[in-house]
Design goal:
The protein has 15 helices and 11 strands. With 381 residues, the protein is an alpha/beta fold. It has a domain of 210 residues: Bacterial extracellular solute-binding protein, family 7 (D-Maltodextrin-Binding Protein, domain 2). The strands form 2 sheets. The protein has a 6-stranded mixed sheet with strand order 7-6-8-5-9-11, with helices on one face. A 5-stranded mixed sheet has the order 2-1-3-10-4, with helices on both faces. The protein starts with a helix and ends with a helix. The chain binds calcium ion.
Length: 381
């Protein structure tokens, strides 16, 4: 079967499964359980039974971001009639939360679900796969990755550096700026703070005099509670409420200028990827694509009520970062991009393409998108 026919067949079957209420989003069918309407893929005895473990960077409690990994697994199982099963595991089970890429690269685990910017220490260009400070929103990130050559460049980088292939599989949208144990009235108040923040945002904060730490999501609460850190960012109201940060800090700032639209991704060891039948490769790609959409939708659907509840249940003060913090952060971000470009040829070549795309999409989005949002949020009924 050629690829076009195969994809058409999958689309037809997915529609049929949805109509019968069999799609993963419709119910609680366990991953790996047989699909009642077993389709031709499941009946094709030439397709192997494969069971994979998936290392993730996430705590189980977060049905948004860990949910992205679960979505990939559920969709792959549904589309293969239970022949290809993947078991997502919480951070720390198969690998520490910030070492998912390491175990996938080694082949100790065939695949992972993580954020590429956790690995900027290996090569700074990994940041483009997630987010750059003052970079792209969710929509813009998808446009760059899928339609402007971004994913192709990132996949080439991963293949060369890590022997891994990756696909976008989730996004959080613009994040919040995080939780602080003291009021930030101006840039001077940032100096000396100990803050949990990963990726290039951490390097920008460092330039502002902040002492940065990278901790996995499951370790932030305790660090805040014990005073080991003075501030922390994670994602936004829904996740942050679950992790309980409002119980141990007083000030909640926005926006998370370091993460305007961070992409999460699945990472697959290239040797394992190459061993998969082409049908399973296509299914895995499709499942990742679906998780990419569903995670963003879930955050958007859950964040508004979570924020309202957070504010009504605690005396947390919500505030925007002061203008001088925003301006100094943007300046420091572009200084950092220049430094990375001078030191790293991979970063330099991807940055050139990325910066040109950013400029053009921001011009376009500043028209209809921005003016509509501005009217709807401030002047509309
Ligand atoms: Ca974050």
């Amino acid at each position: 079967m050629n690829r076009r026919n195969f994809l058409q067949t999958v689309a037809t079957r997915t529609a049929a499964a949805t109509a019968l209420g069999l799609a993963a989003g419709c119910g609680a069918r366990q991953v790996g359980a047989p699909v009642p309407n077993a389709d031709a893929i499941a009946q094709d005895s030439s397709l192997p039974e494969i069971n994979w473990q998936m290392a993730t960077s996430w705590p189980l409690a977060l049905d948004t971001i860990f949910g992205g990994a679960q979505e990939v697994a559920a969709r792959v199982a549904a589309m293969t009639g239970g022949k290809f099963t993947i078991e997502p595991r919480a951070a720390g089970e198969l690998a520490p939360g910030l070492e998912v890429l390491d175990v996938v690269q080694q082949g100790a685990v065939p695949m992972g679900h993580t954020a590429s910017y956790y690995y900027v220490g290996k090569t700074p260009a990994t940041a483009f796969g997630t987010a750059l400070p003052f970079g792209l929103t969710d929509r813009q990130q998808n446009a760059w990755l899928f339609e402007a050559g971004g994913l192709e460049m990132m996949q080439q980088l991963y293949a060369e550096k890590f022997g891994v292939i990756q696909f976008p599989a989730g996004n959080t949208g613009v994040q919040m700026g995080g939780w602080f144990n003291k009021e930030i009235k101006s840039l001077a108040d940032m100096e000396g703070l100990k803050m949990r923040i990963p990726g290039l945002g951490a390097k920008v904060m460092d330039k502002l005099g902040v002492t940065v730490q990278v901790l996995p999501g499951g370790e932030i609460f305790q660090a805040l509670q014990t005073g080991a850190i003075d501030a922390a960012e994670w994602v936004g109201p829904y996740d942050d409420q679950k992790l309980g940060f409002h119980k141990v800090t007083k000030f909640y700032y926005y926006p998370g200028w370091w993460e305007p639209g961070p992409t999460l991704e699945i990472q697959v060891n290239l040797n394992e990827w190459n061993k998969l039948p082409q049908e399973y490769q296509e299914i895995l790609k499709t499942a990742a694509h679906e998780a990419n959409t569903i995670m963003m939708a879930r955050y958007d659907a859950k964040n508004p009520a979570a924020l309202e509840q957070l504010l009504s249940e605690s005396d947390v003060q919500l505030a925007p970062f002061p203008d001088d913090v925003m301006a100094a952060s943007e300046e420091a971000s572009f200084e950092l991009f220049d430094e990375f470009s001078a030191a790293d040829t991979d970063f330099a070549s991807i940055f050139k393409e990325w910066a040109a795309f950013r400029e053009s999409i921001q011009k376009w989005h500043s028209l209809a998108e921005a003016s509509y949002m501005d009217y709807a949020s401030t002047k509309g009924s």
